[in-house]
Write a structure and sequence with these properties.
16% of the residues lie in helices and 37% in strands. By secondary structure, the protein is α+β, with helices and mostly antiparallel strands. The longest helix is centred in the first third of the chain and has 18 residues, at 13-30.
Length: 372
């Protein structure tokens, strides 16, 4: 899965990870379930983890926690100036996203449908869920809906039975916890689940999201009762009741969205392939395209503490908006190419995860006026 960006072929980080996961399924079955082996193999400690692909980074109070390939979890207690590897990670699959509900309690997701939980600020992790469990949960929910008389559930049952048969080869790509009890995960082929007890039990969201074609879901953001999910082929879904129901948000763009931000009021900002950024001021009823200057995939976005917005593209360019996403300008600061995630540290610095590990952008470089 390659995309033409800036006149040449460049692989999207999210696309690479998805291809690796999806293509691993038949190989794993033929070679004696290699993916489950990685689900049971603890991550190895090693200096190479610091320069390896890091896919997401989050705040855990003052601490920063980054996750990446081979089950690597990196921790920083000095706002991203230095990093060390977490000691206890029970899997070696790639970890794709991380979310902390408090300084101590966090969750990470990744390949093999894995969900990990930490109760000590990322030092140690325990597996709460994997693709085998997730498939059975989705199948049980679909069968229950079919038994209750929902004819649309027949297809869901068939899809879920295939999910169980194929094993844990579907990656989870996004996680968001509102508090220590309620959280949500999404992934490939429309996989989506939620928990209301901190991950002790999970329930399927597949039947609640109007995604009959099983589009891949790349990101989920939950704030209070509002949830926003972004995915491929223009997929954007929203819930305002904590996940009880979801509505599709129609968009004029048919390409992939890697993420979306819900801003003040009914303002939405969605970003994705080929520099596409779309803004709606009325909850998705109408949209306007925002000029980003070049056709490079926008891989991550963040609202900073001062209210401004920052987007990162896969060339390493950083874009900032001070007018609620109506316009963006390129900052003079430039991160390494292949950015996959970003977070603001306690001292105001911007921390980016990506193909070459983790990069810190100093606060002064963000405070300056964007260079047009």
């Amino acid at each position: 899965m390659l995309f033409y960006i800036s006149g040449r072929l460049r692989p999207s980080l999210a696309a690479i990870l998805l291809v690796l996961s999806v293509s691993a399924g038949p190989v794993c079955a033929a070679r004696g379930a290699a993916v489950p082996d990685l689900l049971d193999l603890p991550a190895r400690a090693g200096a190479r983890a610091h320069g390896a692909l890091q896919l997401a980074v989050a705040r855990a109070g003052e601490r920063l926690v980054a996750v990446g390939v081979y089950g690597a979890v990196l921790l920083s207690d000095d706002a991203g100036k230095s990093w060390r590897q977490a000691a206890g990670v029970p899997v070696s699959v790639a970890l794709t996203d991380v979310s902390f509900a408090s300084a101590e309690r966090g969750w990470a997701v990744g390949h093999g449908g894995v969900v990990l939980h930490s109760a000590d600020a990322g030092e140690h992790w325990a597996r709460q869920l994997d693709g085998r469990d997730a498939a059975r949960i989705v199948l049980d929910a679909a069968r229950a809906r079919l038994a209750a008389g929902d004819p649309a559930a027949a297809r869901e049952v068939r899809d879920a039975e295939r999910l169980v048969e194929e094993g844990p080869d579907k990656p989870l790509l996004g996680v968001s916890f509102v508090d220590a009890q309620r959280g949500y995960v999404v992934g490939a082929y429309g996989l989506a689940l939620m928990t209301e007890d901190g991950g002790q039990r999970w329930q399927s969201l597949v039947g609640r999201i109007p995604n009959p074609r099983g589009k891949h879901l790349y990101q989920i953001r939950a704030v209070g009762r509002e949830i926003l999910i972004a995915g491929e082929q223009g997929a954007l879904f929203r819930s305002v009741d904590g996940g009880e129901t979801f509505a599709e948000v129609p968009t004029p763009y048919a390409g992939t969205f890697f993420g979306a931000l819900a801003l003040d009021g009914d303002t939405l900002l969605a970003y994705g392939l080929r520099g596409n950024v779309w803004r709606s001021g009325d909850g998705g009823q109408s949209w306007s395209q925002v000029d980003t200057g070049q056709a490079v995939a926008i891989s991550s976005g963040l609202r900073l503490a001062d209210g401004s917005l920052v987007l990162a593209d896969e060339s390493g360019r950083l874009l900032r908006s001070t007018d609620a996403g109506r316009s963006f300008g390129a900052l003079s600061a430039h991160a390494a190419a292949g950015s996959a995630g970003l977070v603001q540290a306690a001292d105001g610095a911007l921390i980016l995860s990506g193909a070459r590990g983790l990069v810190r952008v100093e606060p002064a470089q963000l405070a300056s006026e964007p260079a047009r």
